[in-house]
C-alpha cells in the first residue's frame, strides 16, 4: 500500500512544480537557518570549552593581603601574609588535588643575541598538574629542584620560538636578571586564555630560585599567591570554605578581624562564560525554529489549496473504494514528503553556508550529527502536524459532493 | 427472488433544505436479478440520481432496507461502504472521471491499489482489460491524449477491474456524440452478454432501448417498470 502511495505523492508533487518548490523553500530556509545557527552556537561553545580546558579545571587562587607603607597601599598579593607553610597546610585538606604556591612577574629573558620579555612564574611541580600542562620536549623539574633552588627553567612555546627560533632549547642556557638558567623542558601549546593573554608566553622556574635570584623578597618563605585545585566541581565551595577557615586559624585572626588574604574562583568566570554561550546558542536555535514553523504553515496552506483543487479526484477515489484512512494517508504522505525534501535541501544548504562562514570569517562552527537528526525529526513532525488538518479535511469529504465538484 | 443482486424495500431519502425537509425518494421497492440489464429513467428531480447514489453505496438511506448481494448495507459505516464499493461495484460516470496525471493503465488499476493487490497482478489485470476495450496500445498514455469515447471505455475497464457483481452507469453517454454513444452501448451489451449485471441511468429514450428492462421514476417514486419492447 505504501509503495504505490509514494509514487502518487511524487506525481502530485511533480504536477505543480513551481508551487511544490516554493512550499519546499519555506522548509529549506527554516531547516537551513536552524542548522547554521546551531553550527555557530555549538562552535562558540566549543571554542569556550577549549579555552576553559587549557586553564585547568576547578581552580581557585589565594592571594596575600595588601600592606601599607607610608600611606601607600600595595595591591593584593603585596603583603607578606601567605607562606609556603600555608600552602603545605592547604594540601592536607580534604578535597584538594593540587596546591602550588607561586610568585610571578614580568622579566627580560636573554639568549645569545636575542632577548624577550615574558611572564616568569616561580612555583612547584604541582602547578603543571593543576593547569593540566604537558611537557612536549625534555622534562619538568622536581621537588628536589625546589628544595635546593636549582637554576632550571621550563619554557612556553612562544618563548621558545622567540628566543631559540629553530634551535632545540632543551640543554641551552638562558639568562633571567643576569642569572643563567638551564632549559630542561618545553611546554605544550595552550593558546589564549579567556582574557586573550597568550598562555604560552611563560617561563616556569622553581619557587625558591625565583624568590632568591629573580624577584627577591624581603620575607623569605612568604609567597604572593597559592593556586589550589579541588578534586571536583562539587568540592569547590567546600574546599574554599575549609581553606578560609584554615588560613584564619593559622594567621591567628580573631572573629572580628577581616581576612588578610583574598580568594578568587578561576573556574567560576569560565563557567559563566560557558553558560553565556550556551544561552546564546539556545536563543539562536529558538529564533531559527520560528522560520521552521513559518515553513510548516506554508505547507499547510498549500495542502489546503491542493485538497480544494483535487476535490473531484478525492470523490473519484472514494467512489472506487478508497477508505477515509487511504485519503488521509495520501495527503499526509504528500505533506511529509514535501517537508522531508525541503529538510534535506535545507540541511545541505545549511552545512554549505556554515562551512563558508568558517572559511571566510574563521569563526568556529560545529556541525553535529545530532543537530542533523534533530532537524529531520522536526521536519517530519512539522509535515505531520501541519499536514494533518488538510488531510483530515480531504478524508472527511462527502463522496457525492466531491464527485459533483467542478 | 433468491438470486437478486439488488433488493430494496421501502427505500426513502430526505434532505434538509432551507424550506424544510425535502423527500427525494419516497418508499421505493425494486429487485434486480443477476445478469439483468436495466435502465432507470426519469426527468431531473425525479429521484433517480438519489436512487443511484444509494445503490452505489455513496450515501445511506433515511428509511427502508437495501440488500446488495444478500447483505443489508443500509446500516454499514463509511469504511465498510468503501470496501463494498471497491469489491462489489463498478462505476461509470458521465464525465469519465479518469485521474488526469496517471497513465491509462494506472487509472484502470487504481481500484486494485485500494484492494491491496500486488503491483505485478495490478499491471497484468489492467493490461487485459485495456485490451478488452480495445485500447491496449495506449496503456502508457495520459487520459488527455485520447478521445472522449476512448476515455469512457477506459472508465469501463476500470469499473471491471475488480470483477464486480454490478456495474452502475450514470448517464455514460451524456458527453458523447451519437456514433460514439452507440459504440459504448454496444460494449455494455457485450458485457451483459458475459453475465455482468448493469444498471444504467439515462434520460434519453433511445439509449434506454439498449437495456432489457426500463424503470421510470417521477417525484421520488417508481411509476413504471417494464421489459424493453413491451408496452409501458
From TrEMBL, chain A:
Topology in membrane: Multi-pass membrane protein
Coiled-coil residue windows: none
A Pfam family that the UniProt record links to this protein: FtsX
Residue stretches spanning the membrane: 21-41, 282-307, 328-357, 363-389
Molecular-function GO term, any one: transmembrane transporter activity
Keywords per UniProt: Cell membrane, Membrane, Transmembrane, Transmembrane helix
InterPro entries hit by this protein: ABC3_permease_C, MacB_PCD, Macrolide_Exporter_MacB
GO cellular component, one term: plasma membrane
Superkingdom of the organism of origin: Bacteria
Record's keyword annotation contains Protein biosynthesis: no
Domain MacB-like periplasmic core: 20-245
Subcellular location as annotated: Cell membrane
Domain ABC3 transporter permease C-terminal: 286-399
Keyword Iron: no
Sequence similarity: Belongs to the ABC-4 integral membrane protein family.
PANTHER family found in the cross-reference section: ABC TRANSPORTER PERMEASE YTRF, MEMBRANE COMPONENT OF TRANSPORTER-RELATED
Protein name: Putative ABC transport system permease protein
Organism: Azonexus fungiphilus
UniProtKB/TrEMBL annotation, chain B:
Any GO BP: response to antibiotic
GO CC, one annotated term: membrane protein complex
Occurrences of domain ABC transporter (ranges): 6-231
PROSITE patterns listed in its UniProt record: ABC_TRANSPORTER_1, ABC_TRANSPORTER_2
InterPro entries in alphabetical order: AAA+_ATPase (IPR003593), ABC_transporter-like_ATP-bd (IPR003439), ABC_transporter-like_CS (IPR017871), MacB-like_ATP-bd (IPR017911), P-loop_NTPase (IPR027417)
Coiled coil location: none
Keyword line: Antibiotic resistance, ATP-binding, Cell membrane, Membrane, Nucleotide-binding, Transmembrane, Transmembrane helix, Transport
One Pfam family of this chain: ABC_tran
GO MF term set: ATP binding; ATP hydrolysis activity; transmembrane transporter activity
Superkingdom: Bacteria
Keyword Signal appears in the UniProt entry: no
Family: Belongs to the ABC transporter superfamily. Macrolide exporter (TC 3.A.1.122) family.
Matches recorded under PANTHER family: ABC TRANSPORTER ATP-BINDING PROTEIN MG467-RELATED, LIPOPROTEIN-RELEASING SYSTEM ATP-BINDING PROTEIN LOLD
Name of the protein in question: Putative ABC transport system ATP-binding protein
Organism this protein belongs to: Azonexus fungiphilus
Lineage: Bacteria, Pseudomonadati, Pseudomonadota, Betaproteobacteria, Rhodocyclales
Amino acid at each position: 500500500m505504501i509503495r504505490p502511495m509514494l509514487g502518487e505523492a511524487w506525481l502530485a508533487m511533480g504536477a505543480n512544480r513551481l508551487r511544490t518548490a516554493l512550499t519546499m523553500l519555506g522548509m529549506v530556509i527554516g531547516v537551513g537557518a536552524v542548522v547554521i545557527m546551531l553550527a555557530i552556537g555549538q562552535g562558540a561553545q566549543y571554542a569556550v570549552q577549549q579555552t576553559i580546558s587549557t586553564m585547568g579545571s576547578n581552580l581557585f587562587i589565594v592571594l596575600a593581603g595588601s600592606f601599607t607603607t607610608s600611606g601607600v597601599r600595595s595591591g593584593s598579593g603585596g603583603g607578606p601574609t601567605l607562606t609556603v607553610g600555608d600552602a603545605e597546610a592547604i594540601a592536607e585538606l580534604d578535597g584538594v588535588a593540587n596546591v602550588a604556591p607561586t610568585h610571578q612577574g614580568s622579566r627580560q629573558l636573554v639568549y645569545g643575541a636575542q632577548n624577550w620579555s615574558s611572564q616568569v612564574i616561580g612555583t612547584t611541580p604541582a602547578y603543571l598538574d593543576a593547569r593540566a600542562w604537558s611537557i612536549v620536549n625534555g622534562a619538568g623539574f622536581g621537588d628536589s629542584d625546589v628544595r635546593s633552588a636549582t637554576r632550571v627553567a621550563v619554557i612556553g612555546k612562544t618563548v621558545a620560538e622567540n628566543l631559540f627560533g629553530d634551535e632545540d632549547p632543551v640543554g641551552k642556557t638562558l639568562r633571567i636578571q643576569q642569572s643563567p638558567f638551564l632549559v630542561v623542558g618545553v611546554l605544550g601549546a595552550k593558546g589564549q586564555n579567556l582574557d586573550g593573554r597568550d598562555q604560552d608566553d611563560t617561563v616556569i622556574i622553581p619557587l625558591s630560585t625565583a624568590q632568591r635570584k629573580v624577584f627577591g623578597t624581603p620575607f623569605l618563605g612568604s609567597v604572593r599567591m597559592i593556586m589550589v585545585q579541588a578534586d571536583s566541581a562539587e568540592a569547590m565551595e567546600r574546599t574554599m570554605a575549609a581553606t578560609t577557615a584554615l588560613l584564619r586559624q593559622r594567621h591567628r585572626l580573631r572573629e572580628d578581624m577581616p581576612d588578610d588574604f583574598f580568594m578568587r574562583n578561576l573556574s567560576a568566570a569560565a563557567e559563566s562564560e560557558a553558560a553565556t554561550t550556551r544561552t546564546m546558542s539556545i536563543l539562536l536555535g529558538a529564533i531559527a525554529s520560528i522560520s521552521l514553523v513559518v515553513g510548516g504553515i506554508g505547507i499547510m496552506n498549500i495542502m489546503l489549496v491542493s485538497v480544494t483543487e483535487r476535490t473531484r479526484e478525492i470523490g473519484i477515489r472514494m467512489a472506487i473504494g478508497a477508505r477515509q484512512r487511504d485519503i488521509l494517508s495520501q495527503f499526509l504522505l504528500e505533506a511529509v514528503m514535501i517537508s522531508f525534501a525541503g529538510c534535506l535541501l535545507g540541511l545541505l544548504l545549511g552545512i554549505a553556508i556554515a562551512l563558508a562562514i568558517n572559511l571566510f570569517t574563521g569563526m568556529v562552527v560545529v556541525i553535529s550529527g545530532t543537530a542533523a537528526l534533530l532537524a529531520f525529526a522536526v521536519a517530519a513532525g512539522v509535515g505531520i502536524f501541519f499536514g494533518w488538518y488538510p488531510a483530515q479535511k480531504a478524508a472527511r469529504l462527502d463522496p457525492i459532493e466531491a464527485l459533483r465538484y467542478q | 427472488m433468491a438470486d437478486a443482486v439488488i433488493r430494496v424495500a421501502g427505500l426513502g431519502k430526505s434532505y434538509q433544505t432551507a424550506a424544510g425537509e425535502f423527500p427525494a425518494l419516497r418508499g421505493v421497492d425494486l429487485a434486480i436479478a443477476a445478469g439483468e440489464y436495466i435502465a432507470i429513467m426519469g426527468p431531473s428531480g425525479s429521484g433517480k440520481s438519489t436512487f443511484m447514489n444509494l445503490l452505489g453505496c455513496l450515501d445511506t438511506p433515511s428509511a427502508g432496507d437495501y440488500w446488495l448481494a444478500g447483505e443489508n448495507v443500509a446500516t454499514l459505516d463509511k469504511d465498510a461502504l468503501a470496501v463494498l464499493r471497491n469489491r462489489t461495484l463498478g462505476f461509470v460516470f458521465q464525465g469519465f472521471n479518469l485521474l488526469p496525471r496517471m497513465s491509462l493503465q494506472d487509472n484502470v488499476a487504481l481500484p486494485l491499489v485500494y484492494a491491496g493487490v500486488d503491483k505485478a497482478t495490478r499491471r497484468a489485470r489492467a493490461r487485459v482489460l485495456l485490451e478488452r476495450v480495445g485500447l491496449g496500445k495506449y496503456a502508457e498514455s495520459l487520459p488527455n491524449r485520447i478521445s472522449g469515447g476512448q476515455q469512457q471505455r477506459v472508465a469501463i475497464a476500470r469499473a471491471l477491474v475488480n470483477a464486480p457483481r454490478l456495474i452502475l452507469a450514470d448517464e455514460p453517454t451524456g458527453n458523447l456524440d451519437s456514433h460514439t454513444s452507440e459504440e459504448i452501448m454496444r460494449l455494455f451489451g457485450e458485457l451483459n452478454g458475459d453475465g455482468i449485471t448493469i444498471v444504467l441511468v439515462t434520460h434519453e429514450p433511445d439509449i434506454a432501448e439498449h437495456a432489457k428492462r426500463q424503470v421510470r421514476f417521477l417525484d421520488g417514486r417508481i411509476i413504471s417498470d417494464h421489459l424493453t419492447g413491451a408496452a409501458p
